[in-house]
Design brief:
- The protein has 401 residues and is α/β, with parallel strands linked by helices.
- It has two domains: 277 residues, Aminopeptidase (3-Layer(aba) Sandwich), CATH 3.40.630.10; 108 residues, Alpha-Beta Plaits (2-Layer Sandwich).
- 41% of the residues lie in helices and 17% in strands.
- The chain has twelve helices and twelve strands.
- Strands 1-2-4-3-5-11 form a six-stranded mixed β-sheet. A four-stranded antiparallel β-sheet has the order 8-9-7-10, covered by helices on one side. The protein has a two-stranded parallel sheet with strand order 6-12.
- β3, α4 and β4 form a beta-alpha-beta unit.
- α1 packs across α4, α2 packs antiparallel against α4 and α6 packs across α7.
- The two termini are 28 Å apart.
- The C terminus is likely disordered.
- Bound molecules: zinc ion (ZN).
- The site of zinc ion has 4 residues, from loops.
- InterPro entries: Amidohydrolase, Bact_exopeptidase_dim_dom, Haem_peroxidase, Peptidase_M20, Peptidase_M20/M20A_hydrolases, Peptidase_M20_dimer, Xaa-Arg_dipeptidase.
- Belongs to the peptidase M20A family.
- One of its GO terms (biological process) is response to oxidative stress.
- One of its GO terms (molecular function) is para-aminobenzoyl-glutamate hydrolase activity.
- Keywords: Hydrolase.
Length: 401
Amino acid sequence: MNQPVPADLRAAVQERRSLLEQLSLDLHTTPETRFEEHYAAEQLAGRLAAAGFEVSKGVADLPTAFTATHRGPVDGPTVAVLLEYDALPGIGHACGHNLIAAGGLTAAVAAAAVRPDHPGTLMVIGTPGEEGGGGKILMLERGVFDGVDAAVMFHPGDRSLMARHALAVCHLRLTFHGVAAHAAKMPWDGRSAAAGAQLFLTAVDSLRQFVPPTARVHGIIAHGGSAPNVVPDRAEVDLFIREATSAALDALVPRVLAAADGAALATGTTVETAETAPRYAERNDNLVMGRRIAAYTAGLGLELEPPSPANPAGSSDIGNVSIKLPAIHPYVQIGPRDTPSHSVPMREAARSPRAHTAATTMATAMAALVLDLLADPEFLAEVRAEFHASALCSTAGQESS
Ligand SMILES: [Zn+2]
């Protein structure tokens, strides 16, 4: 199905294409990692204030989080456009969050400019720390999403998708403590924390065959010692444990922790475990909104593929939002299919003319969707009905999904 975006809205986004591109490139050349996105937050909040939005910075006790609201003359729903703007450590904007920020902002600014008298509240929520910080989860817990009726965003990627499953994830840091000793003169006095870490990762490999095919357990040795001639007294493993649902994740985490205890026991070390972010839930994409945005993009010449279990899944903190209120997270292709996310080719794609054309199309469709949600109570009722039905389904069917 194909639905035309109103011509004035389409023109308003086109007029702002250079703003979108400049902002996107500016963020791309100034990558900031989770919760350090001071420059990005400043730029985005500043532009929203200049466009007549009422801005609150540092919301939810997060210095780089913000909200910006545009209230219409009559009461109505609250619809939020979510922005992400954090980069990855070491590699920069290899997840393309510069496009999420620039595209989302352009959608909101264009929608408010064309329909200043929209009912209800058009909100932009600046959500920092998506990459391993769970910024949206903290903001959800701290009340920023209270009263929000629906939340929309898009994500760049290697294909264009109306919706895609995302895995629940637990971010773990395991610190093994041993006893330092000279590695040649008195190794028997030492207990190697690196040996504990090594045996733990081997134990995870042994466990791997006996977990569901939906599980993913992967990590790095973040610290393995300081010098080869010193038995390491500290080693750190950073590990992600992922599963199709939060319930399945909750069942898997204790098995991985037991492997760590076993490795520590075997090597005479001890292990401390800490979750470095709140657990991300699986995503519950709202398909009523998904079909509407796909109809708008189709009208603009961009087909979003319908959901398919064949598409590989990652994780995102919008999962937790999507089980509390209707939300969407469609993908738009910005580079060749199968370009891996978090790679150098994806980082380069995220600054390309193709990416800016894709983000402009998504901004246009998203602006139209947001105005529908604000002004068409029947459509919002349909969105809500699907949300309530799917929320029940996901609770009832967690074991089988
Ligand atoms: Zn991302």
